[in-house]
Design a protein that fits this description.
single chain; alpha/beta; Aspartate Aminotransferase, domain 1; 2 domains; 7-stranded mixed beta sheet; 10 strands; 14% strand
Length: 326
């Protein structure tokens, strides 16, 4: 399993596995938890992106450290730029966690941004953790940058079989990094979950060694769904939705819609509940990810189902979508 993890990164991204170690974890979430427990302690600050995957802040707090949030611009799908992160660093900062492709926004760091992040972490002697669970879902070929190519000794990559190989229930993730940190993580895991189940590891090894990546026809299909859903949502009054370069989510800004409904941006949870109960459309409120006034929507269904979802949304909130009288 270890070799299969490193070989995948060597095959897909040209990573030199020399000097790297890898372990399988009981899902990526367990890997991220272990990293926080190993690296952080009370008095430390850890810089997190906002919006963030829901477990990041809690995992940092469970280590006794303090999460510090930084958000980028909407046009960059809220990914914080290296300059944004640099302004957030204090004497208490111990690490930086990035997520590319992002859940929930679909933002992706390119090579230039990634290398600047590494330079920043190295200059400040900080740990840099990269959650790359959606690395297989990037729609501009060869545009994905992985921290594993950097050679940074304080860099740790976290990945998962759940999304790339549709193995969500198998609970299989992994960590790549220097043996100085990966080996203690293995020791810590041995007292938490022991290891992922053997059957999960065997299945994961087969998937990692295969050519199961997004081929161009599949990439085109997902790109078409993304474009169709994002463009259709963007046509709704009070909704602003762009086309993200990665993951399989769009993250529309619905603050204008909430205003038309005489609601505040903090009421996105109420909107999500309305759409579920009245329209039968599943969304996740942006407040769950620390960025209220948004909704996360997946574009996994076929395009006709996505179009039907937007029609149901429009019908459910129809009166609020009428243009106001002049």
């Amino acid at each position: 399993m270890r070799y299969a993890i490193l070989q995948r990164y060597e095959r897909l991204y040209g990573v030199d596995p020399t000097g790297l170690s890898a372990i399988a974890t009981t899902g990526a979430k367990a890997g991220l938890y272990g990293i926080s427990q190993l690296l952080f302690e009370p008095g430390d600050e850890v810089i997190l992106p906002r919006p963030y995957w829901v477990s990041y802040p809690t995992q940092v707090k469970l280590a006794g450290a303090e999460p510090v949030f930084v958000s980028g611009q909407a046009e960059n799908h809220y990914l914080p730029e290296p300059e944004d992160i640099e302004r957030t660093i204090t004497d208490q900062t111990r690490g930086i966690l990035i997520n590319s492709p992002s859940n929930p926004t679909g933002g992706v760091y390119d090579r230039d941004q990634g290398e600047k992040l590494v330079d920043l972490a190295r200059s400040e002697d900080l740990f840099l953790i990269s959650d790359e669970c959606y690395d297989g879902f990037v729609y501009q070929k060869d545009s994905f940058w992985t921290l594993a190519t950097s050679g940074y000794e304080k860099g740790l990559v976290v990945g998962s079989a759940s999304k790339n190989f549709a193995m969500t229930g198998w609970r299989l993730g992994y960590i790549i990094g220097s043996p100085e940190y990966v080996d203690p993580l293995e020791n810590l895991q041995s007292h938490l979950t022991s290891s992922p189940p053997a059957i999960s590891q065997k299945a994961g090894e087969a998937a990692l060694r295969s050519d199961l990546t997004l081929d161009e026809s599949t990439r085109h299909r997902y790109r078409k769904r993304r474009n169709g859903l994002a463009d259709r949502l963007d046509q709704l009054p009070g909704v602003d939705c762009t086309r993200p370069p990665g993951s399989f989510y769009v993250y529309p800004d619905v603050k204008g819609l909430l205003t038309r409904m005489d609601k505040g941006q903090e009421d996105d949870e109420e909107l999500a509940r309305l759409l579920l109960e009245e329209a039968g459309v599943v969304t996740v409120p942006g407040s769950a990810f620390g960025k209220p006034g948004h909704l996360r929507m997946a574009y996994l269904p076929e395009i006709d189902r996505l179009e039907e979802a937007v029609e149901r949304i429009e019908e459910t909130v129809g009166s609020t979508l009428e243009e106001p009288d002049c």
